[in-house]
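User: Batch of two.

Assistant: Item 1 of 2:
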Amino acid sequence: MSSSYLGAYPELLAEVSVTGRLPRRDELDALRVLGERAAEDGHRLREVVSLIVGETRALWGTLPGVTRAAGPAERARTGDAILAALEAAVGALGEGHEQARRLAVRQEEAERREFIDDLLHGRSDLGRLAERAQRFGLRLTHTHAVAVCEGHEQYDDVHPTVRRIERELVARFGDRDALLTTKDGRLVCIAASGDDRAVLNAFAVLAERPGPGYVAARRVALGREHTGPGGVVLSYEEALDAVHVADRLGLTSVRLTASELLVFPVLLRDRSAIADLVTTVLGPLTQARGGAEPLVRTLMACAQSGYVNAEAARRLGVGVRTLTYRLARIHALTGYDPGNALQRYTLETAAMGARLLGWPEEEF
């Protein structure tokens, strides 16, 4: 490390050895600037401290105050003054170094956040985005998939659960092609996909069961694999859509995959057609006592339980006789029999469409 980072410290030390004074404010400010410069040039604080302590040791025997000391008492006073100046100089250099590092970290965080926003929203030139990605450990020419975790509370970059998951993933996979971040209160993992999707699967397990004292995920959704920067955006949107669809349908599963829910975007692609199906098939349920909502909820519970009446009744919190009565009412009002395979499929599709469109709470 160059002695240029010492600035006027040798001259200061020589004067202190004679006068016994402490460094002045302007001298300490100059040392802080030198500490900042050393940090900006990539030198660690240990190197800076080692340089100044080594310089003090090398100069000690040549300092005028030391060579002119008349006796032990004067040499002791001179030595104490030199050490006090050294202590003040190390403190000033350290302050400057730490300040520069804090600024660098904040700038790095800002650049990382800007990159993530651009990446997940498909902004910026794709070639430039790929170049920036390498700095953050991603090679966007590869195939990637995105997992989104939504918790029972908002996640941010300093959330203990986020730090816990990040530590575990780094310990297991090191610098593998992956990036963990937060976005809009959710935890997002972008990883190169392979045959085993090891990183994303480990992320999902950790999000579901992060350990005692940490916030477990409410939903974890995995998007499909796609190539390039645009593929990351698409996989991220698929994962988000999976979370929204699961919430609309009231699915009980914590972990979801976009590939398993592809039918629902297809249903919503023709909104007018699905709205027509809902009103045509389920519209008569509004005539039931208590409205259509309990009967739509009954159809959804039956579908999710594989049409096992005892399990559907348990999910609804009602008796099997009550469930049987509701199914009979559905048949009577709509004309569709839940016991008939084809008619059951029509009822189930209409019920899912109703959930996706928010019917009967929302009119259309």
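Item 2 of 2:
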Amino acid sequence: MTNPAIIDCDPGHDDALAVLLAVADPRIDLLGVTTVAGNQTLDKTTVNAQKILALAGASDVPVAAGCERPLVGELTVADDIHGESGLDGPDLDGPVAGTVGVHAVELMRRLIERSPEPVTLIALGPLTNVALFLRLHPDTARNVRRVVFMGGSTERGNTTPYGEFNIVTDPEAADIVLRSGLPVTMIGLNVTHRALATTRIIDEFRGLGTRVGTVCAELMTFFADAYQRNFGFAHPPVHDPVAVACVLEPAVVRSVPAPVVVELGGAYTRGATVADLHRRTGLPVNAEVAVDLDVDAFWSMLIGAVRALGMPRTAVTSQDR
């Protein structure tokens, strides 16, 4: 079964790997890529998405830029992790296709309305675009199969003590998504911190002997240095590809149903995702919450996808999608 999907992202090193996985695996029909400000400013995340699609030989996938700031407050980027460009490390200069010239939310609407099958929204950055789409186009949202987002945690955060970056950047947007009534899957730090790009994994990417494999190795090498410097991690976690892997092969990510709310007002906990795994609050279940990852299967899937991108493939036009 092929899953028609839209990726909303803020590339970002791990976003880049997630997009490559979605392009390479035939079980996803990537209808479009929309961008949001987060890891870097909107202009940079949009160019980065275009560069990754070009690297993957998928410049025909339509790209649209979205929101340049969160619904409430100011944007704070993660240049300490992703660098000045948002994709520091490899040389990704080269020609890319332009954007489609409409706002990300409008592209979402068009692609979802045109799709004969329900569409999965895979959100890899702050949920600003997705929340705005749900608010502006509730009728179209009925053709969304589910929202799978990388964000939050059942444990500690990485931006504040209990807040993960994507949710802290726009808590109000995350709150809208979690209260939307749509099927929602949360892929949090508690699981993505198991997807570590060890030295062996980086060597496997480099050992593929392809342009895409080399770029992945260089991305992860920069990412590793940033995580060592900022968090003391021996190896960097690649968060976003886990969300794509969950769509491709649900057995790779084990999840449990639970109520999840976003803390909007806490002086020290704003942006925390409160996942009630033991059902103590009496709130209704509104999400599938990832709790475990088959690490070997995940890396086999991702490395296999990057390997496939180094092989000749039949060109796919946007009309075929």
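The longest strand covers residues 28-35.
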